[in-house]
Amino acid sequence: MSQPRPRWGDYWALTKPRVVALIVFTAVIGMLLALQPGQPWPWPRLLAGTAGIWLAAASAAAINHLLDARIDEVMARTAARPLPTGALRPPQVLAFALALAVLAMAVLLLWVNAITAVLTFASLIGYAVVYTAWLKRATPQNIVIGGIAGAAPPLLGWAAVTGMQGAWDWAHALLLVLIVFVWTPPHFWALAIFRRADYARALVPMLPVTHGVHYTRWQILLYTVLLAVASVLPWVAHMSGLFYLFGALVLDAVFLWYAWRLLDPPDEWFAMRVFRYSITYLMALFGLLLLDHWLLPYLQPQGWLDWARIG
Q1: Cα–Cα distance for residue pair 152/115, rounded to 1 Å
Q2: Cβ contact 129:101 at 8 Å
Q3: Buried b (16+ CB within 10 A) or exposed e, 78-97
Q4: How far apart are CA 98 and CA 89, in angstroms?
Q5: What percent of the chain has pLDDT over 70?
Q6: Is 171 buried (19+), middle (13-18) or exposed (0-12) by CB count in 10 A?
Q7: Long-range contacts for 300-308 (Cβ within 8 Å, ≥24 apart)?
Q8: Is the pTM of this model over 0.85?
């Protein structure tokens, strides 16, 4: 029987569009936070940085498909992916991933800057190789340790704009990285609780499988408390104002309620509600940072004149 001809939709599925969209979103927020009100926007660099980071994230996602093919076959959530279904073969996925990676590095080196290319490549290797090929199968702390690579996009975006020329660039960008890093465990562990049977069947040592659901629920609560602390650090560091602080506290209060309720959930689906809220939380939190940084200064009379200098 002949191999079915792959469709563009199969290759698109390799890029994990929804996951990569969140990655690119946080990277773009990093770019826009690195700019100052009244500063002309470097549109070519912003667009090239966005494209390069997207290409690198899509490449990492495709490599993840390749390395996780055995796991994907036995998990209900992933059994319909292109490799388990036979829509694509490993050589096709590898060639696609490498092409995306080469194109990403070319875009970042030619039209952005070297530091962004280096950091993006390190993030790609960290997620696609260190996490997927090793940590995911080696330790129940896989999400915590591997989260360093997954938390990098705001740093990549910041680097695309500034080139990381000073200590303040690193300090502010790493605050954003810290928020995503601490957000990652409660986000993924909530999903892992709901999908624990899948992970057990695939022999992936996720925390609910190795230490039990009760322990994992307490860990989610602990990391949510840490996240609430990390989320106010931009205000402490004078990176944002009271508008962001109040919004962050509201989002934190809701997340803490979800984490506390998860200790004694009303049903099995509640873990997925926590997982979905965590996505809303991160997008809203970064959106508040952006509004605080850009909108509020322009509410002043002089600020309306500054809009003319954008572009």
Answers
A1: 13
A2: no
A3: beebbbbeebbeeebbeebb
A4: 15
A5: 93
A6: exposed
A7: 303/37, 306/37, 306/38
A8: yes
